[in-house]
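Our consortium's second objective concerns turning raw sequence data into structural hypotheses that experimental partners can test. To show how far this objective has progressed, the report includes one record in full. It was chosen at random from the queue rather than selected for favorable results. The single chain below, 436 residues long, was entered without modification.
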Amino acid sequence: MKKILIVDDMIVSLMMTENMLAGEYETVCAQSAQEAMEAYRTEKPDMILSDFRMPGMTGYDLQIALQNEFHKKIPFMFMTADKSDEVESKGFDNGAMDFIRKPFKPEVLLRRVANILKMVDEIQDLKKTSSTDKLTGLFNKGASEEELKKTCKKSHGSLMMIDLDSFKLVNDIHGHAMGDKILIAFADILRAAMRSTDLIGRMGGDEFVAFCHGVHEPAAIAAKTQFINEKITEVAKKLMGEDMNIPLGASIGCVLVPQAGTDFVELYKKADKALYIVKQNGKHGYNIFSEDALEDKVETVVTLAQVEMILGERNKEPGAYVIPFESFRIIYRFLKRTRAGYGKTICIVLFALKRSNDSKSSLKHAGEQFVECLHKTLRRGDIVSQNGSNQFLVLLTNTDGHTDVTRAVSRIVENWSEMPESKEFYFTHEWSVVDA
């Protein structure tokens, strides 16, 4: 039931007005503006119905005082026996929502009050809609920034940038509908990790923000990080199956307020720097910003199973392992270092894709197709990488030497000849054994 504060210095008028409203609303009565101030602080009514002319502090003065104290527009409706248009104009100029002249009929008063309360509800609904992320129900980016600007200036606590790690894989593998379910679940996990007084928002995509009042200790931030990481894995397996191997988790960049400042824009940049360090050091952890930004301050809170999930290959389809050249170089050096421990021969093959004399097609496209051909032709234990626009490296990791290399190259020749690009591009190759 809506609550209305009635203010009138005339007791008879006050009682009559209360009697008109009591059947529809909860009422609180005050006989002076000073008494009304106290009643508003304790009762927090939905609107105020006040006499305009009262001894000492008028209804107009009451409206100004309350709005200055609470820094918001308070729904006011004035009652007055004054016939002057100036009185009415003065109240409307200050934000009054309606006037009613004494004496008034109950049905007229009830209709006017109902219209005001309906208007207030509609305005609040519009504000909520414009400030809420439709998917998660958290503050959206604009509302988050607006609230955090105020919060960071006056509050003590931790500003956190929170990224949902590896979320793109959910959309790529399971589709956007599942992605939405994961985002909704992650928002619920953030609510559970924070208190009702904390502020949580979605900045867009898989990026979130939170302000935790009174939280400064690393132990508390570590506990929240661990909770979030454990819960998102648990929920993701319920939604996508126990064999789910996407390394979902949370990376958190944190900055302490007011120790690191009170300006939200600057604090957000610092939290972003802290988050970057987490991302560069394995994810699924947290880092508290400091000016020296030492990487050894990053703390991870994941289990061995989660680490294996992060390291694991998501692509389980048959075919060679296609990786960037820098990764290929690291694996090559490792295999060369440990070559003596393998019972089988490791061979490296260099393929060069060359254009036929009359070819006008894109070398880039042909190269992409050749990588696909290598991937599908070779085994899961083999490794493929592109070096430049027309060279391709292959590590055959479990061979008997010349015979296996010849057999692999023959299969590649056969499969490449079936592709349209082979009419305009051919390849050469050379190979050697990887020695210790």
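The partners drew two points from this record. The chain is about 45% helix and 20% strand. The two ends are 83 Å apart (CA to CA). Both points have been shared with the crystallography group to help prioritize constructs.
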